[in-house]
Amino acid sequence: MEGVPLAVSETAAKADFYIFGVGVQLGTMLFTLSVFLLLMYLLYRYALGPLLSVMQKRQDAVERRLKESEERHAQAERYFAEAKAALDASREEAEAIVARARHIAEREAAELVQAARQENERLREEAKRAIERERELAVQELRREVASLSLLVAEKIVQKHLDAESDRALAERLVQEMGALQ
């Protein structure tokens, strides 16, 4: 064992058994194992436990926020769907109102046209009746005038009782007088 340092060779000489060619002392191994286990217990108890607790709380908080976010998202989708449905309903109602208003306007326009036609027809009939009344009045007036003139002619003929030639001259004169009266 010439190139091996003295401390290693002394340790190797005191080894209780060998693992993979390395000498192991049972006491040192048990001491190291117990220190390791104690250190693991202390780390778990004072460091890892609180660390896991903090991590669990943080995970719970993240999950809670995620759940709240999903609920808000679902609620927002419901609100959006409700708003869209309300908008669609409003649009349909507005279209129905416009259609009703258009129908009413068309009906009222047709009624106004019909009323104007009826009024026009009524005025035309009234004008025809008025013209007919005026014509009848004019005919009656003309008859009265003719009767009056006939009486006047007869009266003058009877007063003068002249011969046929003078009667003819008298009739012509009366016709001229009647023409001047009109």
TrEMBL record:
Membrane topology, as annotated: Single-pass membrane protein
Coiled coil (UniProt feature): 52-144
Family annotation (InterPro entries): ATP_synth_b/b'su_bac/chlpt, ATP_synth_F0_bsu_bac, ATP_synthase_B_chain
Primary localization class, coarse: membrane
Record field: transmembrane: 17-44
Keyword Ion transport appears in the UniProt entry: yes
GO molecular function terms listed in the Swiss-Prot or TrEMBL record: proton-transporting ATP synthase activity, rotational mechanism; proton-transporting ATPase activity, rotational mechanism
Record localization: Cell membrane; Endomembrane system
Keyword line: ATP synthesis, Cell membrane, CF(0), Coiled coil, Hydrogen ion transport, Ion transport, Membrane, Transmembrane, Transmembrane helix, Transport
GO cellular component annotations of the record: endomembrane system; plasma membrane; proton-transporting ATP synthase complex
Pfam families given in the database record: ATP-synt_B
PANTHER family for the chain: ATP SYNTHASE SUBUNIT B, ATP SYNTHASE SUBUNIT B', CHLOROPLASTIC
Family as reported in the entry's similarity comment: Belongs to the ATPase B chain family.
Matching HAMAP family: ATP_synth_b_bprime (MF_01398)
NCBIfam families: ATP_synt_b
Record's function text: F(1)F(0) ATP synthase produces ATP from ADP in the presence of a proton or sodium gradient. F-type ATPases consist of two structural domains, F(1) containing the extramembraneous catalytic core and F(0) containing the membrane proton channel, linked together by a central stalk and a peripheral stalk. During catalysis, ATP synthesis in the catalytic domain of F(1) is coupled via a rotary mechanism of the central stalk subunits to proton translocation. Component of the F(0) channel, it forms part of the peripheral stalk, linking F(1) to F(0).
Assembly and interaction partners: F-type ATPases have 2 components, F(1) - the catalytic core - and F(0) - the membrane proton channel. F(1) has five subunits: alpha(3), beta(3), gamma(1), delta(1), epsilon(1). F(0) has three main subunits: a(1), b(2) and c(10-14). The alpha and beta chains form an alternating ring which encloses part of the gamma chain. F(1) is attached to F(0) by a central stalk formed by the gamma and epsilon chains, while a peripheral stalk is formed by the delta and b chains.
Protein name as annotated: ATP synthase subunit b
